[in-house]
């Protein structure tokens, strides 16, 4: 308690006090302001752990909290699924919803709505949320960049750009090929951003990498918009840029599901190695890890997850930023817990954002990308302020 | 043998500036002529001259005087305004990557303009003269917000954090805009969407008249501050030692820069990267002294937007590419290139 009151006196934000409370066991009760301003969000991920004043803070994992999050999250997810299916422009009673799922009668319009519109939508939302969140978690762990997110680092806009090309030059491709285009685009975006980082003198700090990502996104979306205008496919593309799960179809999910499932399993398998990488590449190598191989595998997982998610809902950003940070606060620093918990929380976020998107302005739908950005931007600003290593 | 004195260098630089600016002026004039010829309705050079001297058909006069000329004039004005604004911001933040678009100031101006245009019923007769004022309010509020968010005790404002905050605030504002604009009816929505993409939408003389007084006041004001800006470009301590009232001058210049960007954005929409490229190219051409840099930036900016607008009209006839897209396609790679060259 003394830590907290001290901080309040110093006029800091309560969230910072929370972080510190997390490490309060190891910190003295008289945290000075100078110490606090240099306090990174977690020593294990700050990249300069050896030099921070709080470097002796414990690297803790909380299996109990993680189990609670995992099961609580699953229950909330099931609730969210039902809520989302129940909720929509057409007023359908819960009983009918139940029947539509378990005693499907193709004659009834209501049953059709549930089966063909709402169910794919909600499953799509869940898969996409899990994908973005796990992609973000792996990127943050692997690159030790707290600002890593597939939206911020140009991966989503790369995928969107390739989708524009795909719609313009090869209209009517099956979704299987579309998703492959999306992977290529994701790889393009990631390759360009990290290429620029590699070209820069002395490498790029996380903050500057985000700037490079922003500029690259501006370029790629301008090009995509140009293509869309030229080929008069603006409507299709606009949907991809705004982001929404409304148009999700079963056939898309069928194609997407195996990719996402395999990638998620791979992510969980790799989680132990990601934890090691998150301690620093030297440490990981010292512990006997083949870092090159692990990093390549992680990159593939990230590209598959982000690419397939973008192919279904469009360039939705910030899920991969918010969720892993939140999860880390809840379950500690072990990626064996962070990755599965992130998947569940990410799915929750997108499902509830989608419900909100339908509630804001019925019967119109608000793009979930915009809604999540409204939460994501303040969160990002908060993180960027705490990011000390920049500059 | 002539001794190399400070004076002779100064003289050389001045003659070089004059040469560069004359070349730029010639280029702008050439583009101006080409731009007048570009469009769906063809005007041969002969028609053009005839029309300019009042000998054209009604149709030709309509196309030239009511559509193309105001648009061309506006392109040049906003190009000059945005580039000057970028030059000021790069100068006072000593940050090579500063640009009113990247810093989110354009987005703030846009949000207020959009709210006004969409929620007040008078679409047919928007009080155009009022728009730059509104835009200025929005831009100033955003600038203030970004400054507060990027400010940190003991460290002050770090260049990268400033831009990062700007980028994020701009993203937030655009998200808010998307949510807000969905409530609009389709016609207004279309208008907003075009505006966001940065097409020069105010293409009649009313908009020129709304923009002009701001520029006529602000551009000369900024030019008179050239010497101050040279001093401010050094470190704060040096500038103070040379007798400049640093924070007051910075604030004045910042206000001028924000006002320039805001009034331009009010008529042009989201055109980015001009404020970044203009001053950089100008610096390469005439050197870092603001006496030459400011006018050269304005000219480069004018040339840039005019060219972008002409390309946008020419590339995919009969439809048009919004100018903002063209400037982004040119500007974003340049920004990335700069990032690899500058250190944080």
From TrEMBL, chain B:
Localization in the cell: Cell membrane
Membrane-topology descriptor: Multi-pass membrane protein
GO cellular component, one term: plasma membrane
Transmembrane feature ranges: 18-41, 72-89, 101-120, 126-150, 162-184, 204-223, 253-278, 290-309, 321-339
GO biological process: siderophore-iron import into cell
Transport in keyword set: yes
Organism domain of life: Bacteria
Alphabetical UniProt keywords: Cell membrane, Membrane, Transmembrane, Transmembrane helix, Transport
Any one Gene Ontology molecular-function term assigned to this protein's record: transmembrane transporter activity
InterPro entries: ABC_BtuC-like, ABC_transptr_permease_BtuC
Cited Pfam families: FecCD
Family: Belongs to the binding-protein-dependent transport system permease family. FecCD subfamily.
Protein name: Iron ABC transporter permease
């Amino acid at each position: 308690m003394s830590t907290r009151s001290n901080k309040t006196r110093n006029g800091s934000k309560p969230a910072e006090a929370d972080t510190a409370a997390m490490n309060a066991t190891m910190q003295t009760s008289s945290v000075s302001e100078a110490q606090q301003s240099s306090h990174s969000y977690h020593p294990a991920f700050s990249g300069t752990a050896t030099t921070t004043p709080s470097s002796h803070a414990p690297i803790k994992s909380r299996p109990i909290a993680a189990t609670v999050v995992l099961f609580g999250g699953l229950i909330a997810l099931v609730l969210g699924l039902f809520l989302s299916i129940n909720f929509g422009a057409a007023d359908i009673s819960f009983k009918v919803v139940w029947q539509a799922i378990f005693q499907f009668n193709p004659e009834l319009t209501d049953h059709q709505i549930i089966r063909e519109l709402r169910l794919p939508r909600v499953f799509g939302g869940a898969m996409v949320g899990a994908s973005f969140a796990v992609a973000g978690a792996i990127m943050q762990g692997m690159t030790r960049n707290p600002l890593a997110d597939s939206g911020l680092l140009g991966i989503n806009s790369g995928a969107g750009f390739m989708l524009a090309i795909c719609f313009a030059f090869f209209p009517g491709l099956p979704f299987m090929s579309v998703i492959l285009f999306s992977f290529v685009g994701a790889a393009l975006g990631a390759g360009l951003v990290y290429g620029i980082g590699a070209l820069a003198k002395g490498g790029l700090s996380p903050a500057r990498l985000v700037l490079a990502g922003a500029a690259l996104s501006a370029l790629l979306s301008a090009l995509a918009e140009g293509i869309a205008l030229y080929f008069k496919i603006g409507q299709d593309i606009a949907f991809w840029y705004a982001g929404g799960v409304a148009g999700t179809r079963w056939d898309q999910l069928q194609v997407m599901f195996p990719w996402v499932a395999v990638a998620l399993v791979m992510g969980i398998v790799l989680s132990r190695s990601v934890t090691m990488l998150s301690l620093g590449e030297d440490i990981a190598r010292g512990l006997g890890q083949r870092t090159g191989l692990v990093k390549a595998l992680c990159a593939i997982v990230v590209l598959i997850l982000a690419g397939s998610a973008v192919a279904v809902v469009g360039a939705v950003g910030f899920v991969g930023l918010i969720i892993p940070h939140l999860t880390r606060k809840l379950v500690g620093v072990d990626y064996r817990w962070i990755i599965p918990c992130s998947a569940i929380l990410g799915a929750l976020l997108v499902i509830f954002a989608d419900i909100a998107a339908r509630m804001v302005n019925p019967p119109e739908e608000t793009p979930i990308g915009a809604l999540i950005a409204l939460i994501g931007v303040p969160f990002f600003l908060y993180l960027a302020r705490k990011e000390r290593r920049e500059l | 043998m002539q001794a190399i004195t400070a004076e002779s260098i100064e003289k050389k630089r001045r003659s070089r500036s004059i040469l560069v600016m004359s070349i730029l002026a010639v280029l702008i004039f050439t583009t101006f002529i080409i731009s007048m010829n570009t469009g769906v309705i063809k005007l041969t050079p002969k028609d053009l001259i005839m029309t300019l001297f009042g000998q054209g058909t009604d149709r030709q006069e309509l196309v030239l005087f009511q559509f193309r000329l105001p648009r061309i004039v506006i392109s040049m004005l906003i190009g000059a305004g945005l580039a000057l604004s970028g030059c000021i911001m790069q100068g006072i933040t000593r940050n090579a990557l500063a640009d009113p678009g990247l810093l989110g100031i354009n987005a703030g101006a846009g949000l207020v303009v959009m709210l006004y245009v969409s929620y007040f019923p008078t679409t047919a007769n928007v009080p155009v003269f009022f728009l730059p004022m509104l835009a200025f309010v929005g831009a100033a509020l955003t600038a203030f917000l970004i400054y507060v968010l990027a400010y940190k005790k003991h460290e002050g404002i770090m260049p990268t954090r400033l831009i990062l905050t700007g980028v994020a605030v701009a993203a937030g504002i655009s998200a808010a805009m998307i949510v807000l604009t969905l409530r609009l009816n389709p016609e207004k929505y279309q208008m907003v969407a075009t505006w966001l993409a940065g097409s020069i939408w105010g293409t009649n003389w009313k908009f020129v008249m709304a923009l002009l007084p701001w520029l006529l006041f602000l551009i000369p004001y900024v030019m008179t501050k050239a010497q101050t800006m040279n001093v401010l470009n050094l470190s704060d301590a040096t500038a103070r030692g040379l007798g400049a009232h640093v924070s007051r001058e910075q604030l004045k210049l910042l206000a001028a820069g924000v006002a320039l960007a805001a009034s331009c954005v009010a008529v042009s929409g989201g055109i980015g990267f001009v404020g970044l490229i203009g001053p950089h190219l100008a610096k390469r051409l005439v050197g870092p002294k603001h006496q030459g840099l400011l006018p050269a930036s304005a000219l480069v900016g004018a040339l840039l937007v005019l060219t972008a607008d002409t390309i946008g009209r020419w590339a995919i006839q009969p439809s048009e590419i919004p100018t903002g897209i063209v400037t982004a396609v040119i500007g974003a790679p340049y920004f990335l290139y700069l990032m690899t060259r500058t250190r944080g």
